[in-house]
Design a protein that fits this description.
The chain is α/β, with parallel strands linked by helices. It is built from eleven helices and twelve strands. The longest helix has 28 residues.
């Protein structure tokens, strides 16, 4: 009999209000469900803007979800009070995408790593210093780095600090949001190997967010493919990579570079533009055998983008034209831009004026002299 998963997410939704009053909300995450067993890794993959990072932040309640259930260690996260949520966050941490932006530039690395222990009231001062030195050794950094500031480190070293801060409280779940996307290939391999070693040593459970299919395949036990805020395919690593069912997954896998130049692979190119996340098409999560048919179901008619939106009086495309609903395009009068005077224009004008006045005075004096003669 299998044990209950460490993290169970059901019907998770996160909608953001649009800029205009009465406009449809942007459905960043729409009805996402998955489960992660303890000690396993779930990889979320998809193109930029599909809702991967928003899903991870909603699971930790760094942003409040609109609807859905998040069950972690047998407790419903969405119903916890602020004090109970702070205590729960000792067991769930996050590694952010930008290692430099996630570190306080005014604090030393030792203070950055000690802060989670202070927040959760763990250990005394001497023990906290010892824990900081130990965690630096675990992530492959020297203990002498504890007195340095974040700007004194490279990108890979900063990411190691971010990982050390996430695991210093010995959490059960770590959400890695594009943890290696800002690093070069050699540093990526080092960080990925470090994450796998830490998972074996501390029995960590990962929710790994990335847009790199090779990275996801290397670290994940199960994979979820997201598109336009929805989980379009979910399964084990072998099933998703070996026999993908959804056309969007097939198109993603066909874009992976070939390992050998003689290898023949049919590239699937989806036609059309990206749909509006405020009103996604109904066929977005329906797996169909034909990728091109599915692509046409996903994307709107290209002519819809040229039509003026309802409620807007003027829509100004490129070229200076004004399109009015129900009328013809009218050329918009462009204002005449006058050349800005140069720095020496006033001096030149003054000198020219003085010369003209001198010339007029000289001419009048010569006429008076001629009359006297």
């Amino acid at each position: 009999m299998s044990s209950a998963p460490l993290l169970q997410v059901s019907g998770l939704k996160k909608h953001f209000a649009a800029g205009k009053r009465g406009a449809a909300p942007v459905k960043a995450v729409d009805d996402v469900s998955f489960a992660i067993e303890e000690g396993k890794t779930l990889g979320l993959v998809g193109e930029s803007g599909c809702g991967k990072s928003t899903t991870g932040r909603s699971v930790l309640r760094l942003i409040e979800p609109t609807a859905g259930s998040v069950n972690f260690m047998g407790e419903e996260i969405s119903k916890l009070s602020s004090s109970a949520l702070r205590a729960m966050r000792r067991n769930m941490q996050m590694v952010f995408q930008d290692p430099f932006a996630s570190l306080n530039p005014r604090m030393t690395i030792g203070e950055v790593l000690e802060e989670p222990l202070i927040v959760h009231g763990l250990f005394d001062r001497a023990t906290r210093k010892r824990k900081v030195a130990e965690i630096l050794d675990v992530v492959g950094l020297s203990q002498a780095y504890a007195s340095r500031h974040p700007h004194e480190f490279s990108g890979g070293q900063r990411q190691r600090v971010g990982i050390a801060r996430a695991i210093i409280t010995r959490p059960k779940l770590v959400v890695a949001d594009e943890a290696v996307s800002a690093l070069d290939v050699s540093i990526q391999a080092q960080i990925l190997n470090l994450l796998q070693e830490l998972q074996k040593e501390f029995a960590l459970t990962y929710l790994f967010v990335s847009h790199d299919l090779a990275v996801i395949r290397h670290v994940s036990d199960s994979i979820g493919v997201m598109y336009l805020g929805r989980m379009v395919e979910y399964g084990s690593c072998e099933s998703v990579y070996g026999a993908p069912r959804h056309p969007y997954t097939q198109a993603l896998l066909s874009a992976i570079p070939r390992e050998h130049p003689d290898q023949v692979r049919q590239r699937i190119v989806l036609q059309g533009g990206i749909p509006n996340p405020a009103s996604p098409p109904p066929g977005g999560a329906d797996p169909r055998p034909d990728a091109r048919t599915q692509a046409r179901a996903w994307h709107r008619d290209p002519d819809d983008h040229a039509r003026p939106r309802r409620g807007r009086r003027n829509v100004r495309p490129r070229g200076g034209h004004v399109c009015r609903p129900g009328g013809r395009a009218k050329q918009r009068a462009r204002p005449v831009r006058r050349a800005r005077p140069s720095l020496y224009a006033s001096a030149d004008a003054g000198a020219a004026g003085a010369g003209c006045r001198a010339g007029r005075a000289t001419g009048s004096d010569s006429r008076r002299g001629a009359q006297k003669k």
